[in-house]
What we know:
The protein has 384 residues and is an alpha+beta fold. The chain folds into 3 domains: 1-90, Ubiquitin-like (UB roll), CATH 3.10.20; 105-244, no CATH class; 249-384, no CATH class. Helices cover 48% and strands 9% of the residues. It has helices at residues 24-32, 61-71, 95-103, 107-115, 124-133, 143-146, 149-158, 168-171, 174-183, 199-208, 218-221, 224-233, 248-257, 273-282, 298-307, 317-320, 323-332, 342-383, and strands at residues 2-8, 11-17, 40-46, 49-52, 77-86. The protein has a 5-stranded mixed sheet with strand order 2-1-5-3-4, covered by helices on one side. A hairpin with a 2-residue loop joins strand 1 (2-8) and strand 2 (11-17). Helix 4 crosses helix 5 (124-133) and helix 5 (124-133) runs parallel beside helix 7.
Amino acid sequence: xxxxxxxxxxxxxxxxxxxxxxxxxxxxxxxxxxxxxxxxxxxxxxxxxxxxxxxxxxxxxxxxxxxxxxxxxxxxxxxxxxxxxxxxxxxxxxxxxxxxxxxxxxxxxxxxxxxxxxxxxxxxxxxxxxxxxxxxxxxxxxxxxxxxxxxxxxxxxxxxxxxxxxxxxxxxxxxxxxxxxxxxxxxxxxxxxxxxxxxxxxxxxxxxxxxxxxxxxxxxxxxxxxxxxxxxxxxxxxxxxxxxxxxxxxxxxxxxxxxxxxxxxxxxxxxxxxxxxxxxxxxxxxxxxxxxxxxxxxxxxxxxxxxxxxxxxxxxxxxxxxxxxxxxxxxxxxxxxxxxxxxxxxxxxxxxxxxxxxxxxxxxxxxxxxxxxxxxxxxxxxxx
Length: 384
């Protein structure tokens, strides 16, 4: 049995919850709603954190999860604080009607709201409704709104790069910065230097985008765990982790995600066949960064041109004169013929022209079939 103390203004209630009770959030809201004024909004806080506000949260998922965790914690007694406040609405709508209005805001209405010069914090929920539809309008709002944590956190959760236009105070707020980098890892660039030096923040950023490692403190670029997370996200982290450019495990993980990161591997690993093969299998253009020996390796070059026929341009002169390889390349993309040897360009040009003509014929046939299909559909509609 879990006891939850509920403080509503000066009123004090105790409700008893167990895991056997379903829809705990509905039970709680049904109890609170009659206690607040018809034209007021209420926020439910626990340990200083907002867990529910009807005008901010679209559903009760977060509240339900919080209550579930309460019932499963080792603590038997918890306190929830209910903060009641008035919301400003010049049409004097009830809370439910006002919520419906905010949920139906459209793009042009949001543009008009953001452009208003008379907005104050009395319009906070109107602004929140607008931000949920069009978060980029945060940049048009005044400093007071861009320093409001509730508003800013909603905006950066939808578009992390909006961290760029929030107050300096909130660029140094861990909750806000975490929300931003979880959406767009590179938003770490806009965070305060203090935030860029927090492990949890950097970890969240590189988990979303390995390239975010660029904006972290140098110590993180030498942290093997952070670097592994970064390269496993999209490979880009290797570019900013020179300490690990000779670590085969890390380099291999990077090139499997982003082949051209082979450029940032050590010379030794550029000579490693497993690493190079993984790189060109991901990106044919990675062949340019491989050791010269692999540009004469038929298996490696074949893997590269299968990924991207234009990789033929990085092959050795001997392989540019290999008819089998060149045919594979031009069958995928006839423009790759320009990278073959002069002898093969001359020999295979008639074949390339045949391929091009077949493609044109196939395209015309497909267009004709589509036109006939559309015509038949129109006839069928007319007959009905």
